[in-house]
Amino acid sequence: MKTMHLLLVLGIWFNSHLAVAAIGGIGDGGGQAVVCRDENSQIVSAELLDIYEAKNFFLFDLKYDSKLSTLDLARQKAKIVGESMALGLSTSKWTSTIGNIPTDSYELSSKLLSTWPSKVDVATEWVEWLESNSKRIPSGVAIPAVGDSHPRIVPSKKGCQIEQVAIYKDGNRSIYFVEDIWQKFDSLSQAALLLHESIYFQIRQTGDLTSDRTRKIVGLLFANYNFTPLLAGTPNVVLSCWTTDPEAKFRFLIYDVLDKTATANFLVWNGQSAVNQIKTSLAATPFKKYFKLPSEPNIIDSTSNIGIVSDQVIDANTYQFSFTKLGDMSFQISGYSFSKENDLPVKCNSHLTRWEIKPDGSNEIGPVP
Q1: 3-state SS, residue 149
Q2: Which of 128, 141, 246, 258 is deepest in the core (most CB within 10 A)?
Q3: DSSP H helices in 244-342
Q4: Is 124 in a helix, a strand, or coil?
């Protein structure tokens, strides 16, 4: 079934050998619209909230081919999503012995890596399934607010308000659209709603508690933002690191360790699955020994070795990464708005990890002795 195929590819599966660690999201979800009605409660205009915010809050310059059908337009943008975020939160908690090396860490997921060759096709299949399997709520009937969004702006024009236009039920995998609002949408809002439901289904399984980030992602897709696949340019040998809070809210790969700097590539960012490559340069000193490189004394000046991460897709405060000597190997992540008590210690594997996707779509992944 296509829907089950989607769940295996784009949903988050912490497929572990003995134990599972997950970042909790919420069940169900929906989409909202800015709807304007006349004195007889008849709809005059309707626009998906994602598009309304993109135009009036983020001030994105939206570009799309108005000649395309709703489904073709959604397919076009779904391909971009598939290329970029299909590997979102692509980590598993390994608590067994792999290759005679014991691990208790977060690694790339072998199951998700194995789906890479088909991820774009699956992304387009998902929007097609939504479009063909949606159930329509008749005119004069409304969907109660789901309560999973924090609109960044609201309409002030008389007769206009935010209304629920769709709800997705995870239990029976069904999608409901309010027919009279859907019919007032132009092709842009219709395609954006299909994308909204597709993206939100995935990322709320992996940590998102509201649709706020989904709405921004949809806006960025129609602003032709350059989404970068999570593992683009990543070498096949990496060091896996994660924060030691119960949910490991930051999980990242270290590679390209040079004399002064190393690259950190985040797969999980503050409890949310990455949907766009998030990289920064960190001080190389803490990581050199893992790559068998000469290292300076293990004392790091936390005031000078700082990595800054800021990304269009991250709808949150910029984070600062500062390093201090904490035991054998650990450092801390601080948000500008965080107090020192909220710093998150970080742990890395005692070994490097090698991953490879072969031409036939199969993969190999495991510790490097």
Answers
A1: coil
A2: 128
A3: none
A4: helix
Going from N- to C-terminal start, the domains of the chain cover 2-222, 237-368
| Burial (Cβ within 10 Å: 0-12, 13-18, ≥19) of residue 105 | buried
Of 251, 30, 231, 241, residue with least CA distance to 147: 30
What's the burial of 138, exposed, middle or buried (CB within 10 Å: 0-12/13-18/19+)?
exposed
Question: For residues 74 and 194, what is the distance between their CA atoms, to the nearest angstrom?
Answer: 7
Distance of alpha carbon 167 from its chain centroid, rounded? 20
A 10 A CB-CB count for 221 gives: 26
Contact 203, 84 (CB under 8 A): no
The stretches in the chain having pLDDT less than 70 are 1-28, 83, 85-123, 171-172, 205-206, 295-312, 314-343, 361-362
Model confidence, pTM: 0.79
Report how far residue 72's alpha carbon sits from residue 366's, in angstroms, rounded to the nearest whole number: 40
Tokens at 50, concatenated: 């994602």
Q: What is the rounded (10 degree) CA torsion for 56, 62, 67, 70?
A: -70
pLDDT in tens, 119-148: 555 567 777 777 777 888 998 899 988 888
Buried b (16+ CB within 10 A) or exposed e, 52-75: bbbbeebebebebeeeeebbebbb
